[in-house]
Amino acid sequence: MSKSNSTENNCLKLLFNNTTWANIGDATGIVGSNSAGSLYVSLHTADPSETGDQTTSEITYTSYARVAVARTTGGWTVTANSVSPVAAITFPAGTGGSGTASFFGVGRATSGAGELLYSGTVTPIIVCGNGVTPQLTTATAVTED
Q1: Alpha-carbon dihedral sign for residues 69, 72, 77, 83
Q2: Cα 106–101–133 angle (5° rounding)?
Q3: Mind giving me the DSSP string for 65-84?
Q4: What is the pLDDT of residues 117-138, one digit of tens each?
Q5: Residue 115 contacts by C-beta under 8 Å, 6 or more apart in sequence?
Q6: In the prediction, which pLDDT does 1 show?
Q7: pLDDT tens sequence across 58-69
Q8: 3-state class of 61 per DSSP?
Q9: 70-98: b or e for each residue (b if 16 or more CB lie within 10 Å)?
């Protein structure tokens, strides 16, 4: 079983843009939140996989923190079954430690073992550590299949 392209886009818009999905159940549909809030982007040294959470293989360089991105059209672009950030996502500069970011995640928690909603590969990989400010570009994308 697969979803139609329209359904994939509506799911992504509801989750990433807080856009109401009309006519599901009734004319009101699945309503976006009163307060859009944010999703939290993380970096990972290995694939957190479908069974992982936000801490699975999460990078640990000194000063690292997840980055909040608003659940709005100002935070995320949804088009053609794919979502990408409107602007580059810049993580805190490393003040020590090391690690290689080869995956990113999008989840619900600012810290701890929150629910991981999506993950994908980082291309090119980012070698993190002292003096490095990791950044995901607007070409970073999650695609529904």
Answers
A1: positive
A2: 95
A3: --EEEESSTTTEEEETTEEE
A4: 999 999 999 999 999 999 999 9
A5: 53, 54, 107, 108, 109
A6: 86
A7: 999 999 999 999
A8: coil
A9: bbbeebbbbeebebbbeeebebebbeeee
Q: Amino acid identity, residue 31?
A: V
Q: How far is CA 70 from CA 38, 46, 75, in A?
A: 4, 25, 5
Strands (E) in 9-115, as ranges, are 38-44, 67-70, 76-79, 82-85, 89-90, 98-107
Please write the tens of the pLDDT for every residue from 14-46. Answer: 999 999 999 988 888 999 999 999 999 999 999
User: Given this model, what pLDDT does residue 47 score?
Assistant: 97
Label residue 112 by pLDDT band (50, 70, 90): very high
The strand pairing partners of 62, in sequence order, are 96
Quote the CA–CA distance of 141 and 143 in Å, as a whole number.
Answer: 6
Question: Which amino acid appears at position 119 of this protein?
Answer: S
Cβ atoms within 10 A of the Cβ of 14, count? Answer: 20
pLDDT computed for residue 55 by the predictor: 98
User: Residue 34: CB partners within 8 Å, gap ≥ 6?
Assistant: none
Sheet of 67-70, strand order? 67-70, 38-44, 98-107, 116-129
